[in-house]
Amino acid sequence: MVDIASAADTAPATGSALAVADDAVMSMADFHSWFNARARANSFRVDRIPFADLRGWDFEPDSGNLVHASGRFFSVEGLRVRTDRPWVSEWIQPIIVQPEIGVLGILVKRFGGVLHCLMQAKMEPGNINGLQISPTVQATRSNYMQVHGGAGTKYIEYFRPGSRARVLFDGLQSEQGSWFLHKRNRNIVVETDEDVPLDEDFCWLTLSQMRRLMRLDHMVNMDSRTVLSCIPPALTRPDDTGDSFSDAILNSLSGHGHAVHDPARILSWLTEIRARQELVQRRVPLKEVVEDGWRLGPEVIDHRAGKYFDVMAVSVQASNREVTSWTQPLVAPKQSGLLALLVKRIGGTLHALVQARSDAGTLNIAELTATVHCQPGNYVDAPAEHRPPYLDYALAAPSCRVRLDVVHSEEGGRFYHAQNRYLVVEVEDDFAAEPDDRYLWTTLNQLMSLLSHSNYLTVELRSLMASMRSL
């Protein structure tokens, strides 16, 4: 277990950040003490195991699909993909199929007029460091319906129909299209005025404190980041840092200033790409995957080229989960990814260069993501003309241009040690405009407006949006 109390010293400390602590239920020092105490109070263990040792999971005799005996939770199946990409246009791969929609919910309440979020210290089997900060509720439908036969999901009543909590945001948002087929979760923020019993694994944190924690590696989990990205800027009270880049973010989020493209142009651009882009997805038995480029061993399904990702199995023990021990499959990426967002002040307004991207499991052909979105190691042997645009630019960016550089874990309930490096790079004034028709400059406010709809921003871009607001 990583002791992260010392990580507090690495977070930028400003006078205003210290001032907002006076308005918080819990100081940052007390938070780190509490977080480490929760790690010590609970026991966690994750061991890799052979597929044969999975309990309740098995490979179906006919299809070879890896499924749960209940028919719920998720399955690992095969997917054939055909696109019109110029390089590697067709492939087959394992994919997680999880049609049920889970709940990612944050309960908020005002203390002394200051909005606080009820967050939990939650262990997931794929987390690099065990505990991370999770939303109030982070549960699949199978979990909160207690298909596992374990304890109920804490605080789920605030997110059910009939709750007296006020809805501040409620929308379906996509998950990782590289490894999930058409996966979406409900991202919801609700506010209550009632007294809320506080479980020992939960704490109240202000949005300012959450912004500070998002500057730390592997602290705020993916599910928290995606929900936080959806919180309307009007509900947040920004830290007054006096920094010009911070001011540029706030102005771009608020919709002040000049925008290169109006909203109708952005929607038309993405719609046109979705209309002409070829993305044909066909579910196939997993046994076809292991007959075509992939290998099924006693402990892993992997690609013969040693790239991309593995499918593995783990045994889990966690003293503070609804079920204290279980086994399950996980997807394990071969390497870290890179999400780099290039930003530029155009006409005095901060713009982000986003791309329309199609992944194997994308539901609606293409979604907006960061300027660079890839696992760099997968392109080592790619022809120069097929390397992701701006990958080399982002990797070589001088430190004076880097506004954000943090490593975040991805969803630990389905992925093992998946992590991405998140970069924000402010480019030079003479940086070239849109390089081709899959890229477009947008303001942050325009991206926030798209979050009110489903399947417009990838989960990775939403993580970047939340992380940028931490600045």
From TrEMBL:
It holds the Pfam family Hexose_dehydrat. It is an enzyme of class 4 (lyase). Coiled coil: none annotated. GO terms for molecular function: lyase activity. The keyword Lyase applies. Keywords: Lyase. Residues 29-231, 265-467 form the dTDP-4-dehydro-6-deoxy-alpha-D-glucopyranose 2,3-dehydratase domain. Its EC number is 4.2.1.159. InterPro entries: EvaA-like, EvaA-like_sf. This is Oxidase EvaA. It comes from Kutzneria kofuensis.
